[in-house]
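Example 3.2
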Amino acid sequence: MNIFLKLLSLYNLKYKLRLFRVILFVSFSSFAQFFFLTSLVLVISVLADSSTIFTNKYLFNIYNTLNFDNKSNFIFFLISVSFCFIILSALFNLFNNYLIFKYSNYLTIKLEQIFFSFYINTDYHFFNKNSQTRLISKLKDNISLLGIRFFPNIFVFFSAISTLSAIILILFFIDYLVTLIIFFSLLLSYYFFFFFLKNKINFLSSFNNKLFYKKTKFIIDVFKNIKVLKFFSKNDFDKIYYANSKLLTKSSIKLSVLETSPRVFMEFLLYAGSLLLIFYFYKIDSQYLNISKIVFFGLASSKALPSFNQIFASIVNIKSSFSYINVFSEEINIILNKKNHLIANNNKDLIFDKIKLNNVSFSFDRNENFKISELNIEINKNSFVAICGKSGSGKTTIVDLLSGIYKPNNGFLSLDNLTINDFNIYNYRNLISYVPQEFHVTDGTIREAITFGQEEEYFNNSTAINFALKFSGALNFVNNLPNKVDTEISDRGIMLSLGQKQRISIARALYKKPKILILDESTNSLDLITEKNILNDLKNLCNFMTVILISHRISSLAICDYLYLIKDGKVFDKGTFNNLSNS
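Structure, written as tokens:
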């Protein structure tokens, strides 16, 4: 229950009020539906014995108040009213289902948005300690299962409780002794099943969750290595995939059987109980069976059975869904403990003359051998600065600290005298475009790859696209493609060479015209001439842009205004290219 309350706390007041209103309406309409259906019992009792019109004081009052002069007209009136109530009951039922499906999906997609927003905005360190495959599986599988098993069953539970309450209320008025016997017999039966099966159901739910992740992980691993797998001497991946699917199917079948088995037993109890009930009324008066009571108890049984089953099934599904919620426990705790972790961007431009790392120390949790200590770096606005060093020296980590991707353990990042913190980090990052060494090309057109993540109104900004293509060195080869920027490329850029992909990645970064451009060894796959031309073009942009280059190519460094040489997480030398070359 605690995890459910935490999950509910993720929603804003608007969604909580919606949830409450829908539960209230579903409960009321389910309660009313059974009362509407009981009108059928009244009609049957009158048809079985028309003298009931005059012996029943309620019917007699209606008969007199509406000035009926014969029984036939009154019976026709009762049948008409009952028919309207039955139609109304069906409409309520249909609208209930609509609301349940609608708001279950709304709650699901909102939850998906909350976690997706958390993933893309949270500290990058979170991704270093969590498998991307697991995060994908959680977003794709776990939340979908919550939309199927958790949210609908919350509404179904309250709907079934309301229906059952209406049944018990009326049955108690008709024959309280029989009602008490039936109610407690069913309650004890369900308690027995729930107590006996809950641990097994929880185990299978948790096991299924692991199997979903295993299957998703296998698919992603295979697709990422599809080229390498072509050269395996024996390709058994289809058999492994089938085995994973079969294991998940078997576990799902067991879970479904356990979840539905109480319904079969309860059907037996209710049908056998109905037969015993008829025998009970017969023993009371063998000459005259009370048709109204028998019909009413029969109607009550037909509605009570699905209600009991829905209550039990919804409890089981909600309980089994907790294993799908628990996998988000870390995310939920972070969000709730730091409600303002996604601080709204006020779109205020930050103005600066210098970017500084001030006495910064940093280390990764799982790598005590590598650390940065008392690091000081200063980068002037509109300069072209290189950070270079051997592989593993810490240059990428330093740039991640400069860009605000990582938070220092000690010290601070600043723009002039403004310390970058949680309240302005998103404004700061809006100044930056980052180009990684390995670039993922989206599945679509070159235009879509360049404008990725931008709002639709910017999608057809040809001026910005041409600017980005020109200064990334991609304009010529894109214009030679069959459909130019609208040429289709695959999600792994199979149509493009590695150098072309890198130029597209630089174009994506330049598209938003950043104030700070970071190139993380993102020109290493280019030939020397192309790289030199692109860097010269970027140098010309330094009138309004600061460029930070990570590179191990000596030829790339000559164009830079200033160099920081990194060794073991420390600056061991710095200066202009000529000064460092001479020394």
